[in-house]
Amino acid sequence: MNRYFIEVAYKGASYSGFQVQENAHTVQAEVDNALSTLFRETIVSTGSSRTDAGVNARQNFLHFDTALPLHPQFLYKINAILPEDVVLRGIYRVPEDANSRFAALSRSYEYTLYTHKDPFMKDRGYFFPYKMDMAALQEAAGIIKEYADFTTFSKRNTQVKTFICAVAESYWTVEEERIVYNVTANRFLRGMVRGLVGTMLRVGRGKLSLAGFREAIESRDCTKADFAVPPQGLFLIKVAYPEGLLQQISFSG
């Protein structure tokens, strides 16, 4: 058996999330269907990072095993089968024990706000035309890196064993009419990024003090967080792996 990592990107609006779920339309189900159709055998993939309903990804990975050879036009064929809102960007040969989820060193997300009405941003950001204290917003983002326990920012009904996350980057950038939150960590909890964004926006609008933000984090109580920001503003941007793990396979034609 050979193990392969595949890199995908997708627009999440039409899906009930990334991971396969019973009686639900998911990105992973579409990928598995495309692989199974091309190989003419049942392929069950494993995903690196789960994204919620409506969340987008510029880069996500899955792995699968097969003893069959790759079609010489593998990328072309798979993308012809996949729906238009999912694209397979690359396939990589990896060691047979490599796991797309557990081998990942970090994940990076962006959440985009746009401050003036823009029909082209409707499905790629959150229209937020309110005045904000950017200095307070930036300070709140910096505070996040001081903590490791993010129980407050995990939605209920999760099956994780630990709420500890190592946040390496947390900051806001302003680009003309867009305000973007950038965050990188070794792992994320269910709803965590949207919870962080929603709660920080309360700080930016003066509805929550920086001290209150710290208290919310330290409370380990998800009712102290604000998850009420829409999914379309959230993008999984990058999944990082150890150098040398991914050996990309090239195809002619």
Automatic annotation (TrEMBL):
<dbReference type="GO" id="GO:0160147">
    <property type="term" value="F:tRNA pseudouridine(38-40) synthase activity"/>
</dbReference>
<dbReference type="InterPro" id="IPR020095">
    <property type="entry name" value="PsdUridine_synth_TruA_C"/>
</dbReference>
<keyword id="KW-0413">Isomerase</keyword>
<comment type="similarity">
    <text>Belongs to the tRNA pseudouridine synthase TruA family.</text>
</comment>
<dbReference type="InterPro" id="IPR020094">
    <property type="entry name" value="TruA/RsuA/RluB/E/F_N"/>
</dbReference>
<feature type="active site" description="Nucleophile">
    <location>
        <position position="52"/>
    </location>
</feature>
<comment type="subunit">
    <text>Homodimer.</text>
</comment>
<feature type="binding site">
    <location>
        <position position="109"/>
    </location>
    <ligand>
        <name>substrate</name>
    </ligand>
</feature>
<dbReference type="InterPro" id="IPR001406">
    <property type="entry name" value="PsdUridine_synth_TruA"/>
</dbReference>
<dbReference type="Pfam" id="PF01416">
    <property type="entry name" value="PseudoU_synth_1"/>
</dbReference>
<dbReference type="InterPro" id="IPR020103">
    <property type="entry name" value="PsdUridine_synth_cat_dom_sf"/>
</dbReference>
<dbReference type="InterPro" id="IPR020097">
    <property type="entry name" value="PsdUridine_synth_TruA_a/b_dom"/>
</dbReference>
<dbReference type="GO" id="GO:0003723">
    <property type="term" value="F:RNA binding"/>
</dbReference>
<comment type="function">
    <text>Formation of pseudouridine at positions 38, 39 and 40 in the anticodon stem and loop of transfer RNAs.</text>
</comment>
<protein>
    <recommendedName>
        <fullName>tRNA pseudouridine synthase A</fullName>
        <ecNumber>5.4.99.12</ecNumber>
    </recommendedName>
</protein>
<keyword id="KW-0819">tRNA processing</keyword>
<dbReference type="GO" id="GO:0031119">
    <property type="term" value="P:tRNA pseudouridine synthesis"/>
</dbReference>
